[in-house]
């Protein structure tokens, strides 16, 4: 691992440190873990965190894109918080982990609409 990619400083964190970070709801339930981050190529801003959710022992897990703006970092939990329960997440846009998924602007607008966040795709 390159030293530069493992550095954290203040509010900055390397992407490889976000991968595997737990995501909780405000009730304290662990919902899943961050598997990936979708970054705008031009601005460098994180737009979505892709969280694994559901399934049992790795079977049936889904990827759930979460608009980055919906996540709040909790230093005491050492993870991200989202204002959502498991039922709401089950109904959220998702895709199979093992699928050949292609992200489209239409899908991105669906994600943004579900979470009631300003659309990145406008």
What does this structure look like?
- The chain is an alpha+beta fold.
- The protein has one domain (16-114): SH3 type barrels, CATH 2.30.30.
- 16% of the residues lie in helices and 34% in strands.
- Strands 7-8-3-4-5-6-9 form a seven-stranded mixed β-sheet. Strands 1-2 form a two-stranded antiparallel ribbon.
- A hairpin with a 2-residue loop joins β1 (8-9) and β2 (12-13).
- The protein is globular and about 35 Å long.
- Residues 1-8 have low confidence and may be disordered.
Keywords:
122 residues; alpha+beta; SH3 type barrels; 7-stranded mixed sheet; two-stranded antiparallel ribbon; globular
Q: What is the element layout, followed by pairings?
A:
Blueprint: E1 8-9, E2 12-13, H1 15-18, E3 22-25, E4 30-39, E5 46-53, E6 62-67, E7 72-74, E8 79-82, H2 86-90, E9 95-96, H3 105-114
Parallel strand pairs: 3-8
Antiparallel strand pairs: 1-2, 3-4, 4-5, 5-6, 6-9, 7-8
């Amino acid at each position: 691992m390159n030293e530069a990619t493992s550095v954290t400083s203040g509010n900055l964190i390397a992407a490889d440190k976000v991968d595997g970070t737990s995501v909780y709801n405000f009730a304290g339930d662990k919902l899943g873990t961050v598997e990936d981050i979708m970054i705008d190529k031009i601005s460098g801003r994180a737009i979505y965190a892709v969280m694994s959710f559901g399934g049992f022992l790795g079977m049936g897990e889904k990827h759930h894109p979460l608009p980055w703006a919906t996540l709040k970092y909790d230093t005491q939990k050492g993870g991200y918080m989202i204002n959502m329960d498991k039922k709401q997440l089950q109904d959220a846009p998702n895709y199979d982990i093992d699928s050949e998924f292609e992200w489209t602007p239409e899908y991105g607008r669906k994600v943004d609409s579900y979470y009631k966040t300003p659309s990145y795709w406008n």
